[in-house]
Amino acid sequence: MNGLGFRTLFSKELRRFLRVPGQTLLSPLITTSLYFLVFGWSLGSRIREVDGVPYARFILPGLVMLGVVTNAYLNSASSLFVMKLQGTVVDVLVSPLSYAEILGAFVGAAVARGLLVGGIMWIVGAAFTGFGVAHPALAVLLLLVVAAGFASLGFLTATWAASFEQVNFLPTFVVTPLTFLGGVFYSASMAPPALRWLTQANPIYYLVEALRWSVLGRADAPPVVGFGVAVALAGAALLAAYAVLRSGWRLRG
Amino acid sequence: MSEPVVRLRGVSKRYGDFTALDAVDLDVAHGEILALLGPNGAGKTTLISIVAGLVRASAGEATVLGRDVVRDYRFTRRAVGLVPQEINFDPFFSVEETLRFQAGYFGVRLADDRLEEILVALDLVGKRHANTRSLSGGMKRRLLIGKALVHEPRVLFLDEPTAGVDVRLRQQLWAYVRLLRSRGTTIVLTTHYLEEAEELADRVAVIDRGRILLVEEKDRLLERQGGKTLRITLAAPLAVLPAGLAALGARLAEGGRAVEVDARPGGSFGPALAAAAEAGFPVGDVETRRASLEDVFVSILGGEAGGDRR
Predict the structure, then answer these.
(1) Whole domain around residue A123: which residue ranges?
(2) Residue B275 belongs to what domain range?
(3) Which listed residue, A40, A190, B28, B36, has the most CB atoms within 10 A of its CB?
(4) Which residues of B touch A7 (CB under 8 A)?
(5) Which of B53, B124, B110 has its CA nearest to residue A8?
(6) Are residues B193 and B279 in the same domain?
(7) Taking CB atoms and an 8 Å limit, are A253 and B54 in contact across chains?
């Protein structure tokens, strides 16, 4: 076990995103705050409540989930991709770090960024809607597992990607549409049949609902499904990232 | 040779139909400087990368200090330092941070005096806290060398280390490479500057199209392969080469202002000088020139191109 090696890479990855807080912490915070203000405030004045919960409070868990997912993904994806592009990935590959240590450091730092952004968003949003959380430990656990899953997906994407466009493919064409259609801003029970079907076929919907249950104490979908999706996603993505790293594909000649 | 520090046996690397390395056998001895010479695409970087763990061999075995580079990668990578050919830098961090991170990856806490020593040796003291983005090309290359040294490797691979480095710094780096060798570090050097190999190397390995063509001590190689040329500069030009010199294979150069004659390795210029004295022409200057490593290199690769494959 190369404990110092692991801690060094993990700490380097943390410092990398903390060094550009405007881009890595402030920017997602502003974007999500705008969602919150525009959707929560403007629609909130018309919708008022969803299943007995004020609309702004209803959408907050989904926004936090969106922030955690995209930031965990982007951190490992952009860091590894930039290292590939600049050639500094060589520094890690020639070192005596094991595959698990390398993956653990990248995923760990990406999870930290995801939770940091999600936590800040939560504090800002909760300041307007109330700080009460029904199941705080489960909420944190869910976000941790989801962040690890998306961080691993980011690592996989960066391993495969040959351009920034490819790095951005997943968040742009998959995660954002699925999140918007995943019941962040609406309840599936309120939606017309076609949208309801689309929503219920979307795995991110179950993640959002599980977080909503953890925070609000109620949700449309059974939370156990969301927790199951999170564990399955994280397990599969971590295993796939480990296998790809071990195979040397696109990293070692 | 005692137990080699690096040993390759039958190491091949294939990319689809292309063979980058073809059953390479090579031993690198403790404390030597081995220059790996070859044209672009010969397989030099692939060979180095296999030992450093950047590339996986398709066949064969590579060991460092007797341990397999794949099975015992933690041990072998701690023993190896690599200065890659391509300059890389992380624009998020300073020179000091970069060196400390690199040491950390190897499980080493970089002591302040060791950091200072590296910065001094590589002329980067003034840039200790500078962001790596602000460094010049030569400084970035020196930082690469520093990164390869932070864990005090037993074997240092230098892949074109002085490309783009000015003459003064090249001299400094050469001096530092010699210092490392004197402390027991084994060095494998690839370079396009044959002058660099000639200056530093104890032994030379010539590689072309993935095959090792020759491994020999540099001095013996120059002695064996590199003949000498005698050049007599004349005080007044000659129109016709005297028969005694012509019989020895001499030639007129510079429009008759000089006479040149080659001696094969081990040969003597005695007969040529006697023939010149007998011809009685006025001599301005006499010099001999030994073939450089570049001449030998070109001649070896030329022979290879002519079908003289081992």
Answers:
(1) 3-247
(2) 227-290
(3) B36
(4) 104
(5) B110
(6) no
(7) yes
